[in-house]
Design brief:
- By secondary structure, this protein is an alpha+beta fold.
- The chain has one domain (2-19, 31-120, 134-194).
- Helix content is 25%, strand content 28%.
- It is built from 7 helices and 11 strands.
- The chain has helices at residues 12-17, 46-54, 64-67, 85-93, 109-116, 144-149, 153-160; strands spanning 2-3, 9-10, 34-40, 58-60, 75-79, 100-105, 121-125, 131-135, 165-169, 176-183, 186-194.
- Strands 1, 2, 3, 4, 5, 6, 9, 10 and 11 form a 9-stranded mixed sheet that branches. It has a two-stranded antiparallel sheet with strand order 7-8.
- The longest helix has 9 residues, at 46-54.
- The N and C termini lie far apart (49 Å).
């Protein structure tokens, strides 16, 4: 996984909602990129409460057979619109707490949700040499880059297919945001130093 040696800078909102400076080898996409977050409801039940109140476009990423039962602790795919109430609340109160993985994609929320549900339930080896089904929090920003880095070339292609970029917080002090994208089946990473929005002073 490649990383740039000189991280560029930007505010969280600039990086998520406006095209950031990109390395020369990045292949730009054609069309309108939508910004989404996968929010971990198991880490904060307030996420589900605010989804019901603000009603942004969102989909449960747990399989249909358990989604209703586990609704309050589910991972949620949420379309983020700049300056909308839920977006502002999520970025203000959930970023930096290992609750969010951001995604940019040309695809609609239903296409993306169907794709990502393939990764929330997997089989784990048990002590008897068999396998037991379980849930996998790939969207945890401390887990995601390690898991993504373990995928082979075909698996990278499959995961990345409907997705342009992944974004995740990349240090405990909440001062960096890393973008992960694939080029020819190989992950590349750009890490940005987060800056604070400039405030205007009148007079």
């Amino acid at each position: 996984m490649e990383a740039l040696t000189e991280p560029p800078t930007g505010t969280l909102r600039e990086l998520l909602f406006t095209p950031p400076a990109m390395p020369d080898h990045y292949q730009p996409v054609e069309g309108e990129l939508h910004t989404y977050a996968i929010a971990n409801g198991a880490g904060s039940e307030q996420i589900h409460v605010n989804l019901l109140v603000d009603e942004p476009q969102h989909r449960n990423l747990f399989p249909a057979d358990v989604a209703e039962e586990l609704e309050s602790v589910s991972p949620w795919l949420i379309r983020l619109i700049p300056e909308e109430p839920f977006t502002e609340w999520l970025l203000e109160h959930c970023f930096g707490k290992r609750l969010l993985l951001f995604i940019q994609s040309l695809h609609d929320i239903d296409t993306l949700a169907a794709h990502l549900r393939n990764y929330t339930r997997i089989e784990f080896p048990d002590q008897q040499g068999g396998f037991q089904p379980g849930f996998f929090s790939f969207y945890d920003p401390s887990i995601f880059p390690v898991w993504a880095g373990s995928l082979n070339r075909n698996e990278v292609f499959k995961l990345h297919d409907p997705i342009s970029n992944f974004w995740y917080e990349s240090n405990p002090s909440n001062q960096r945001l890393s973008m992960l994208y694939a080029s020819h089946g190989k992950w590349r990473r750009v890490t940005y130093h987060l800056t604070q929005p400039k405030t205007e002073v009148n007079g």
